[in-house]
Design a protein that fits this description.
The chain contains 12 helices and 7 strands. The protein is α+β, with helices and mostly antiparallel strands and 308 residues long. The relative contact order is 0.19. The model has no long low-confidence stretch (mean pLDDT 93). Bound molecules: glutamine (GLN). The site of glutamine has 11 residues, from loops.
Length: 308
């Protein structure tokens, strides 16, 4: 017999599928146009059960959903104090690519907007015979529980259409937030954005955070609990950019979106949720991703106030 969760997800997929608004991100390699109708929902519990409906295994670019995981890696590498010196933990309410740097120090508001994520990418170093990018991709892979890789063709297209990110990186370098080659920081950042994941991978990455940093399938402790706590706090207030306030009041889960069409949400102690649907609203958040999370939060009483 089909589980009630599976059945619920199937009904939810059918209901939200009809939402036809929004447009997919228009930066992609030729022949790899996102299909607006693709739609998948996956839920992974902290004890390793994975429920999926719709397009669950097709790969797409992780994009900004990479930001919390790289932030976690930088926190583990350098400790809170050193990372906080470079990136603040304040919600900016800004669009993701806003030039949002503090007047006095040049410090980005948080690690979920591009400025903060570029500062974080600039901090991460290679080690143990691995490049910085390798270490980042390894961290994502350990969170997903399978080997992931970064797409060269996605990177090649993005770096040519990244004037704003170039500008941000050089600004960060001019105020000393990025201490080494700014071009290298941008490259690391865009390679992390080009990591290919499926909806299922994202649900498991979310479940790793929900499970206090321990990957539900492999049992590996990918992040320490204090790092997870910090990452989830920043996701809660800043994960959805200038839509973050509306998100917290209507959904109430720490979450992160990416222009690749992914949305990841965490129900601490219980489950990770991921949605894949390419059409985006004006904030760069997936239209169906948002609606799915909203409905799930109401139907399953996932809002942090309600479930307290
Ligand atoms: N690569 C994109 C950028 O840096 C990622 C943005 C996003 O997913 N919101 O502009």
């Amino acid at each position: 017999m089909e589980s009630p969760i599976q059945q619920y997800l199937e009904e939810l997929l059918a209901e939200v599928q009809d939402l036809g608004s929004g447009a997919p991100y228009n930066v992609h390699p030729a022949g790899r146009e996102p299909r607006p109708g693709d739609f998948g929902i996956c839920l992974a519990t902290v004890d390793g059960r994975v429920y999926s409906v719709g397009v669950a295994d097709q790969e797409f670019s992780i994009q900004s959903i990479s930001k919390p995981f790289s932030y976690g890696l930088a926190l583990a590498d350098y400790g809170f104090e050193a990372v906080d010196e470079k990136v603040d933990v304040e919600p900016s309410g800004d669009p993701f690519n806003q030039i949002s740097l503090a007047q006095d120090t040049g410090r980005p508001a948080n690690s979920m907007v591009n400025a903060g994520a570029l500062a974080v990418a600039g901090m991460i170093r290679g080690g143990g015979g691995k490049s910085a990018v390798r270490r980042i991709v390894d961290t994502y892979s350990r969170s997903a529980g399978r080997k992931l890789s970064s797409s060269r063709s996605v990177f090649d297209v993005e770096i040519r259409q990244s004037d704003r990110n170039h500008a941000l990186t050089y600004l960060l370098s001019s105020v000393g937030i990025i201490e080494n080659d700014p071009t290298r920081a941008l490259e690391v950042y865009l390679r992390q954005c080009a990591v290919q994941v499926s909806c299922r991978d994202l649900a498991l990455m979310a479940a790793t955070l929900a499970n206090g940093g321990s990957q539900p399938l492999t049992g590996e402790q990918v992040f320490e609990i204090d790092v997870v706590e910090r990452v989830l706090s920043v996701m809660m207030t800043s994960g959805m950019y200038d839509d973050a306030g509306a998100w917290v009041s209507s959904v109430g889960m720490p979450a992160k979106s990416g222009v690749g069409g992914g949305t990841l949400a965490v129900l601490p102690g219980q489950a990770g949720l991921a949605v894949f649907s390419p059409p985006l609203d004006g904030h760069g958040n997936s239209v169906r991703g948002l609606e799915t999370c909203r409905r799930l939060s109401t139907d399953m009483e996932m809002h942090f106030v309600r479930s307290a």
